[in-house]
Design brief:
Blueprint: H1 18-23, H2 27-30, E1 32-33, H3 93-107, H4 111-123, H5 157-170, H6 177-191, H7 223-232, H8 237-244, E2 250-253, H9 276-286, E3 300-302, H10 314-320, H11 327-334, H12 339-347, H13 349-363
Antiparallel strand pairs: 1-2, 2-3
Helix pairs in contact: 3-5, 3-6, 4-6, 8-13, 10-12, 11-12, 12-13
Length: 385
Amino acid sequence: MWRSSKVGFVSAVALKNAHIRAHEARVACEYDLATPEAGDDEGDGSMDQLEENAWYDVAYPEGDGDEEGDRDVPNFVSAQLKVGFYSSSCPTAENIVKSVVKEKFKSDHSITGALLRLHFHDCGVRGCDASILIDSDPTNNQTSEKDSNPNFTVRGYELIDEIKEKLEANCPSTVSCADIITLATRDVIALAGGPKYIIPTGRRDGHVSNASEVDLPGPNNSVSEILAFFKTLGLNKNDMVTLLGAHTVGVVHCFFFQSRVSNFRGTGKPDPTMDPELVTKLFKLCNTSTPPTTLDDVPTTFLDQNTSFIVDNQFYKQILLKKGVLKIDQELALDKLSAPIVSRFAANGNAFRQSFAKAMIKMGNINVLVGDDGEIRKNCRVFNK
């Protein structure tokens, strides 16, 4: 990657930490999703409003119709999930999850982003089976998903542990870690001012977690390449544009976009598709005379340069104004595959909120384990003996 020999522009090459250097190739590894300080104008996002303001009261809403023949008919496995799955076996399960998440949110609003990332990174590899939670086992030379390069900065594990501990005290060996991730993410989105929705439960935890299987798309992939990845997960074009809208509350490290503001594709000039004022702002942010030695030293910026802490449709409005920070974000507004959806969400905040709720439901159903498959872990970090 290019770096200036005179101004000390931040570069991943300058990083001494080998893990950080390795992350440069993956979009999902270095950006954190931030969280709003308060709810938006469509509700304050309080936990008490979660069900009464839910966009959906069934697990599988109809298709959005953005693609020919597109209907969100569940497959046999995901159809075995059920809203209120624990109503008999552990009636307090969802309330326990909500209470722990709510308490954490009071002191750390960034937990919203952490859980969103954790949830997607889990479902993006082997499906939503909590495989990302497993600790590596050096004694058996086994490196788990969480220690792969793309997952190096994923956070939220301790919160899942806390929830699991309380659930085990109330309902031993009953609630899966996969369901904990899904429920906790749903609840924290509501707290952060995002859409409220109801999700089915009944997922079981996987028996496999290998770092070598983690292969997430990068920030310089094209829209068609990103779409191809989403399709392997059973998600469609509308889902892709919707879930990338989570960047409305995201931040990204400088080395993921520095070439766009300085030497785009070796031209020595900034990316012409980026707003000139934003180019200047980001260049100044990332210009440093002291090369960073740790990830914490690397400057970051918001992916949404307007309402950076609010879960809303401003991300789409910003990329229409050429203020996309990541290449893939800006491409969403330019590529004919995604541009019409971007325009629709930019013009209609409610359309985005409903689509986001639906996409989160669909993502939570990716390749789930049900019935007798998998297990219910007693400790989310290790497989049962």
